[in-house]
Amino acid sequence: MPNLEHPAYPAATLLHLESLVPCRESQVSMLLSIFGERQQFSFPSIFIYGHTSSGKTYVVQTLLNTLQLPHVFVNCMEYFTSRLLLEEILTQLQSCSSETEQTSHVPCDNFNDFVRLFKQAVVSRELQDQTLYIVLDRAEQLREMEANILPAFLRLQELTDGNVTVVLLSEIVWELFRPNTGCFEPFTLYFPDYSIGHLQKILSQNHPPEYSADFYSAYINILLGVFYMVCRDLKELQHLAALNFSKYCEPVVSGEANERDTRKLWKNIEPHLKKAMQTVYLREISSSQWERLQRDNEEPGQLKGLSAHTHVELPYYSKFLLIAAYLASYNPVRTDKRFFLKHHGKIRKTSFMKKHEKTSNHLLGPKPFPLDRLLAILYSIVDNRVAPTANIFSQITSLVTLQLLSMVGHNDQLDGPRYKCTVSLDFIRAVARTVNFDIIKYLYDFL
Fold first, then answer.
1. DSSP reduced 3-state for 107
2. Which of 168, 219, 369, 392 has a beta carbon 3.0–4.6 Å from 328's, enabling a disulfide?
3. Of 36, 28, 67, 34, which Cα lies nearest the Cα of 191?
């Protein structure tokens, strides 16, 4: 028995709609009851919210397209000013009734002009006898626009005296939208996160035709068992499922196992899912590079240059500042003369190298250093003369903002600021390689 029923639409259309939006039948049923029939006035504004990848945008778009309801869909992230937003709505409105007709740009400076042009467009397109839906995705951007935009959209039905419904899609709750001066309250509808059962059902629908549905469903069950605790994003899980399925099928393709031999299939895929767990959401490497790694049975770090962390986009002198900060954090002060003074004279080995008497500085962690010492090391390791300009000091501030350096103590200290370098050895070696600097030669722990 179908879950979606409405007297205004054919049963076959609703059955098709239900197959397109699995696990969202209750939300679609609620929207259908709110929308009503085509000629009926609907609620003036609807606010739909829920976490990312909970199906808000997909469900609304699929519902409007399947039922062929006249609508305008605008992403507020793309049209980030009120003028761009209003003009895009009017431009899309021109193609609501006729997709073949050429659309032209409609200039609109304010909301008063928008209401006037909107009324004209509705009459010229003969849309006044049915509900027109304006869908604003990423609606939280409306809070950054003029103060009158959000309240005006919520009351657009009243302002235009027409049959129009504004649908707002957002990831945050309505309480963070409500202006202090008050506004028309929209009808709110919550989209909950997909449960593990819902994800299993949705992901299992994408099974390749050359394999049985039960085989692919078992693979999805294994995938969710590994990733569900750390990732519940449907899009990310779909990406992971497509990326690792070829590795799961290898024993079946080679003839080592059949589709029901779950133990062999699990033992084959387990190490590769653990590798994929390290890069969830990060996209440090492309899909083709990941597949090449799986074919070669290599670790993700073994292909040079794949990791985003090894390519830090910093200005030239910022890289040397970071290197100087690392040397100042992990080298004792008394070793600066040995490493950075060209004519330091003869230093007795017994008084200098006492590594057997102390713990490694890398095990003890970074130590704070003053700004003067950082600049002194910088001048020593850079070949060209660097003037202590405001540009150099602003780059130090930028490194603190990026959390590559951390400021120790308070700004009101009379002896100047002190810093710590917070990056790892592998990180700084990758940065040093980009400027052809051998940092290991300058570290006391590696003498």
1. coil
2. 369
3. 28
